[in-house]
Design brief:
480 residues; alpha/beta; Rossmann fold; six-stranded mixed β-sheet; 43% helix; elongated; binds guanosine-5'-triphosphate; binds magnesium ion
């Protein structure tokens, strides 16, 4: 088997999601052309699926079948010998019709003949019409194992049972449910397991493929939770020291801090989308709870808090802008500041204060301006939601997320992880405190790496892929 490649032809009626299925299996959002219109794919196009750098599978996308009944009519009008089976198809493919009127169909049939197995993609929302039975009859003449794949299974009105019954009548019992837009890893596993059940010789390589995919998914989740942990640490440790008596300066600093945090959240969104390789994919990005990579609701509004059942923090009561808190200097901060270098102090206080060597005395009249706990929770909840959507390739999460259950409750109401609380007293952990958030300024602050790992592990405790998580009602809005 070494060096051999399993050839899989993806076939089916036009506009059933064949190209989408290839994109999903290939993890390649740029493969082919996907459009909600018939005859989008006009030619056979192949791509290899690598496992540890070695090609294991060749997947072939084919044009949609549109006139299988026409081919059966032709065969009836040009009868050959009895039981000629696949030879009938050869006869047909040699005729001028096969390069003329049936050009698209002939490409599909030739590709299936040249492959080891076919995946027959079905739009499960469609009734089982005679034309589909005709397609299966024509495809059977290729004498290749055919696995039906029921697509659009997550759409309302999917007729999964009708299709299963009809396929069983045709002797096709190994049917796969696999919605290519609402991706779930278990569905993909079933697909490859079914493949190996009809292709015994490929059992071992396909098992290896599954193992590699699982490893990759695990790696991606770890990388993703680290990105979110990094965001949360940056925001939790962000602090601006403001002169207690200078209201105008404080207002200005509030604006600067909020803008920096918004931008930081946005950067995390983009990093996550990039990590899951969804940049530029219409349907996947559409299904995310974002618009142009942004959340619909501004981070610093009661509406945003309300979406997750959070209440505004007490900071609002003592005059700070929404989402921020103004506090007396904490002992933690003072200690933390004691460990800072002169350059970092400059970045913390801004040059206007001209702090110089006697900075400590100057601290007395200052207060600290921070992002409040409610906003930290909101950031965590939003990023977890994004992560879930990305892992499921963007479940059409148009319904508000139910914040109860599914592991989010802890981020909503239990006390914040200790690591985050510790970050409050570590201004040097936040890139936002250093030269406006530029990574170039980041110094390897002691303890930050470990904190990031710890927090990422907490964030990685994601709920399963149960359907309940998109079904709930919106939490009561407002709060403060
Ligand atoms: N909701 C949902 N939409 C899907 C799914 N699969 C495909 N689509 C959409 O269906 C439309 C057709 O998808 P394509 O992948 O272009 O279909 P195709 O079978 O390759 O079409 P042709 O090449 O024209 O035969 C696109 O708008 C896809 O985004 C699915 O599982 N669920
Ligand atoms: Mg196509």
């Amino acid at each position: 088997m070494a060096g051999e490649i399993l050839r899989v032809a993806v076939v089916g009626h036009t506009n059933t999601g064949k190209t989408s299925l290839l994109r999903t299996l290939l993890r390649d959002t740029r493969f082919g052309e996907v459009r909600d219109a018939p005859a989008t794919t006009r030619h056979v196009e192949g791509a290899q699926l690598l496992v540890d750098g070695q090609p294991l599978l060749a997947l072939y996308d084919t044009p949609g079948l549109e006139d299988a009944p026409g081919i059966l009519d032709w065969l009836e009008a040009h009868p050959g010998e009895r039981h000629e089976g696949a030879r009938a198809l050869h006869r047909f493919l040699d005729t001028p019709e096969a390069t003329g009127r049936f050009d698209q169909e002939a490409k599909v049939l030739r590709q299936l003949q040249a492959s080891d197995v076919g995946l027959y993609v079905i739009d499960a929302r469609e009734p089982v019409l005679p034309k589909y039975r005709d397609e299966l009859t024509v495809l059977a003449l290729c004498a290749r194992p055919l696995l039906p794949v029921l697509n659009f299974t997550a759409s309302p009105g999917a007729r999964v049972d009708d299709w299963r019954a009809a396929l069983a009548e045709l002797g096709l019992h190994a049917v796969i449910d696999f919605d290519s837009v609402v991706f779930d890893a278990a569905g993909e596993r079933r697909l490859f397991e079914k493949l190996s059940s009809v292709l015994d010789a490929w059992r071992v390589p396909l098992a290896r493929l599954l193992a590699v995919r699982e490893r990759d998914a695990q790696w991606r989740r770890e990388a993703a939770t680290r990105l979110v942990a990094d965001l949360l640490l940056d925001v939790a440790a962000a602090v601006v020291l403001v002169d207690a008596d200078d209201d105008a300066a404080r207002r200005r600093d509030e604006g600067v801090l909020r803008e920096a945090v918004r931008a930081r959240e946005q950067r995390c969104n983009e990093q996550l989308i990039e990590l899951f390789a969804f940049g530029g994919v219409e349907y996947a990005v559409e299904a995310l709870p974002l618009e142009d990579g942004r959340w619909h609701t501004d981070l610093f509004t009661p509406e945003a808090l309300g979406e997750y059942g959070l209440k505004a923090g007490r900071g609002a009561g003592v005059g700070a802008a929404a989402g921020l808190a103004v506090d007396a200097l904490s002992a933690g901060l003072t200690l933390g500041v004691g460990t800072l270098t002169g350059a970092m102090l400059g970045a913390l206080f801004g040059d206007r204060h001209g702090l110089g060597r006697r900075w400590f005395n100057r601290l007395r009249g200052y207060r600290e301006l921070r992002v409040d706990d409610a906003t930290l929770r909101l950031l965590a909840l939003r990023q977890r939601r994004l992560l879930r959507a990305l892992e499921r390739r963007g479940h059409g999460a148009v319904t508000p997320l139910d914040a109860s259950g599914n592991g989010d409750e802890r981020w909503r109401s239990a006390s914040l992880p200790r690591t985050l609380l510790r970050a409050r007293a570590r201004p040097e952990w936040s890139a936002l405190n250093l030269a406006g958030g530029s990574d170039a300024w980041r110094v390897p602050a002691p303890g930050r790496e470990e904190a990031c790992t710890e927090l990422a592990a907490r964030l990685g405790e994601l709920p399963g892929d149960g359907p309940g998580e998109v079904a709930g009602a919106s939490a009561p809005s407002g709060g403060a």
